[in-house]
Hints:
Strand order of the largest sheet: 3-2-4-5-6
Number of strands: 18
Helix content: 25-40%
Largest sheet: 5 strands, parallel
Distance between the termini: 20 Å
CATH topology of the largest domain: inorganic pyrophosphatase (n-terminal core)
Radius of gyration: 25 Å
Structural class: alpha/beta
Number of domains: 3
Number of helices: 18
Amino acid sequence: MNRVWQIQPRVSDDIVLQLLHNRSISSQNAEVFLNPDYDRDLHDPFLFLQMQTAVDRVLIAIEKSEKIVVHGDYDADGICGSTLIMDVLKHVSDAMGVELNASVFLPHRERDGYGVASHTVDQIIKDKTSLLITVDCGISNAKELDAGEESGLDVIICDHHQLAEQLPKFAVIIHPLAPGENYSNKKLCGTGVAFKFACALLICARERGIKVGDGYEKWLLDLVAIATVTDIVPLLGENRALEKFGLKVLNRTRRPGLLKIIQNANLELGKIKTDDIGFRIGPRLNAAGRLKDASVAFDALNAKTQDEADSYSKNLEMLNRERQRISDFAFQEAKQQIIGQEARYAHVVWSDSWTPGILGLVAGKIANEFNVSTFALSKSGDQFIGSGRSANGLHLVEAMRACGDIFIKAGGHPEACGLTLESLEMVEIFSNKVNAYAEIVLKEKLESQEFLIDAQVDVKDINFEFYKNIMQFEPFGTGNPTPVFALENATVGSIQAIGSEGKHLRLRLEDNGSALECIGFGFGKYASQLKIGSTASIAFKLRVNEWNGNTKLQAEIADIVIK
């Protein structure tokens, strides 16, 4: 498959107008997009059909000191959402002068699996729990949750995952995709749903004269910012406003443990952006659930003292480094399974030695490197469990459904999913079926692999005013990607392979007396193919490089063509 640059047609010399056009944002909607407003862009939480019922039930539970369990998930979204719900429950109970009787349960990836397990519900009932609040899970656990109804267990579900065929009958459901739901933002992450629940709870508390303080909910947005990025939801509409203001809160967060995580990630308060969440903060939080227990990350986020913050974040940092080591090794093994295969439209890789917690990382790395949707599986007992990551827009849940009734368990998002198969034979059947489905869906699209580019530019166009205009489009992410530009037929002024084993490329390109410094991560192999004075074209993202007190613009190479 050839990668073909698809440069968007120029509609304006004004780069802001060009980028708005490329993102199909009309002039009437430009102001809303470029300048998110908290009060204008956030929707009323009571648009959720069952929100009032959920809030009333929680306030009764707090007032009567009923036992509450918050059941989260083992990823960053579930951990942040659980932290958020516990924060607001504690804040409201303190304002009411009532001792909170609540705890958090985060499932273990291997012992409990994804979602709410039957044995977990049994234990919750045995512990005389009155109210279970699920965060980032629960919508696909009708059988497990309905079993608690006879024991008097009330359930509130805060979830956003794809709906199962059968929904819990006795639960109060806060889910943007629920049948008949009025809430317009269908793409909230799990923590986003939890935030709307927290906002509604605080609104009702204020109406009842409970002094919870104005604006308390805004201090929860650091958690929403992290989860919105790590769960890869579109940064458009309400999500864009949540992320915009969430980044402001994250950059002055008051959580000791999160401050320590930020420090360990070599980030600086005031300068944290979405990429920093996606590549530095998120992986650290996810490392706990991947290798050990998600409670390690939860404890770090909820540290109250500096000593606790130091201890918990240190454990998290050690897990993250181990996660990097074993996921890199598994990725290399997975690559060897693919190299030499005939071209496929969906990859299925597996090993009985891979730790289940790193399967999503392996699938993601393969999908990114080969631009092919990938499922990575590992043996767990007598079964094979796995994770999938999408490429080229393949809807993973629909792809699995097209394979028929071959799964013990399957579900997730269009872009990321989980699955369980009973044997290696079923893995092979799944591999063939999902590839056949992907070929039907994607073959015509992938005959020529398009690489979308926002605009062609000259070196003389690139200055800090140009960069400032681009930054109006932050925060970048799904649905609003970082702009990519093309610089064509520039002269190579200098070449250097840098980094470990020369994996990266440093380049200076010159054009009509102007020069642009370039960095290409993973492009080191081109150093031997380029010559000073030769001609090259690059697709790039513009960034600011700060070093020893000097600040300059730098092109981060996304693709390169040697003339």
